[in-house]
Amino acid sequence: MIRAKRFFLFLAAVILLTVLYLLLWPVPISPQAWTPPPAPPLSGPYEQNSKLASVERLGIVPAAKGFAPEDVALDAENRVYTGLDDGRIMRLEGTDGHWANFSDTHGRPLGLVFDSTGNLIVADAIKGLLSIARDGSVSVLTTSADGVAFGCTNDLDIAADGTIYFTDASYKFPLTNYKADLMEHRGNGRFLAYDPKTKTTRTLLGELSFANGVAVSPDQSFALVVETAAYRVHRVWLSGPKAGQSEIFIDNLPGFPDGITSNGKGKFWLALVTPRDKTLDRLLPRPFLRKVVMRLPKFLQPAPKRYSFVVGLDLNGQVTDNLQNGSPDCYAQIANAVERDGALYFGSIGESTVGRYRLPQP
């Protein structure tokens, strides 16, 4: 009887401490209430399909030697480059699918774009905006704007005049704690421009909830910037009567938008890294509950799901292409899609190599 009583007292103490922990333990976020619009159904322009079942995996890179090839860039010789989570930039050599070391940022390379002189410009989540020469040597271009250091330099595109448009996903949280920024939902992200002539950086749009992909329009009149945590894409006008103004390009997407690229012919490819999470959508209007969730073990928190999802958009933000695959062996969690010579090359946060999808030919 005494032993049973001691057990129940111990159990009660454990429960009390657990409740106090879930309610009171400090967390790094100061969440802001936001009510998302109801997620659109996977029908109509987002009808489920298995078009991406034919994605090829190009030269597997062992996970022990690097993982999560976030973005893809192709040079003038059509060689494929990607950045891994161990800091290395890899290049696909020859036709045998052999990945070779090209450079190492000693950070976390995310967005990759070649400039007009053949330098690989890199948005590195840790090191800032970088330039990598043909010999693999690394130079730092910028690490802050308006007196605020970058916390997670994410993606970029380069205009015809050489201006580099890029994002700082969150000046508050590093990439290793990206979930905290999504859960806080307080607009810690920025859309920025770097002028290589003056070597100055300016903010074009602030208070973005996890600023992500960037794409400049073919006519250079506007740039698109992805706001991942708000399920939308903004258009920022660079020239013309609306220069300096911004507007919503596409809203209420059915997944978390990540990278966006222009094919130079009037189409933008937008990667949806994972479908919307019903639990997270229900949590977003409730800041207190989000604090409680942040105190839970990671395996109990919302997490990306394995799914392939890429959409094509026209110059007005209308869906023109809908590419999906939900099979267990899909090339999952596509973070970027780059078009070159009738194919899309995919980066991913859930794979160990680049994917390639042959576009249907008219």
Protein described:
The protein has helices at 2-24, 178-184, 278-283, 287-294; strands at residues 56-58, 72-74, 80-83, 88-93, 98-104, 109-114, 120-124, 128-132, 138-142, 144-145, 148-149, 153-158, 164-168, 189-195, 200-208, 211-216, 222-227, 232-237, 246-250, 255-262, 268-275, 308-313, 319-325, 334-340, 343-348, 354-358. The radius of gyration is 21 Å and the shape is globular. The protein is 12% helix and 40% strand. A hairpin with a 5-residue loop joins strand 8 (128-132) and strand 9 (138-142). The protein has 362 residues and is mainly beta. It has a four-stranded antiparallel β-sheet with strand order 1-26-25-24, with no helix packed on it. The protein has a single domain (2-358), classed as TolB, C-terminal domain (Neuraminidase, 6 Propeller), CATH 2.120.10.30.
List the helices and strands and how they pair.
Layout: H1 2-24, E1 56-58, E2 72-74, E3 80-83, E4 88-93, E5 98-104, E6 109-114, E7 120-124, E8 128-132, E9 138-142, E10 144-145, E11 148-149, E12 153-158, E13 164-168, H2 178-184, E14 189-195, E15 200-208, E16 211-216, E17 222-227, E18 232-237, E19 246-250, E20 255-262, E21 268-275, H3 278-283, H4 287-294, E22 308-313, E23 319-325, E24 334-340, E25 343-348, E26 354-358
Antiparallel strand pairs: 1-26, 2-3, 3-4, 4-5, 6-7, 7-8, 8-9, 10-11, 12-13, 13-14, 14-15, 16-17, 17-18, 18-19, 20-21, 21-22, 22-23, 24-25, 25-26
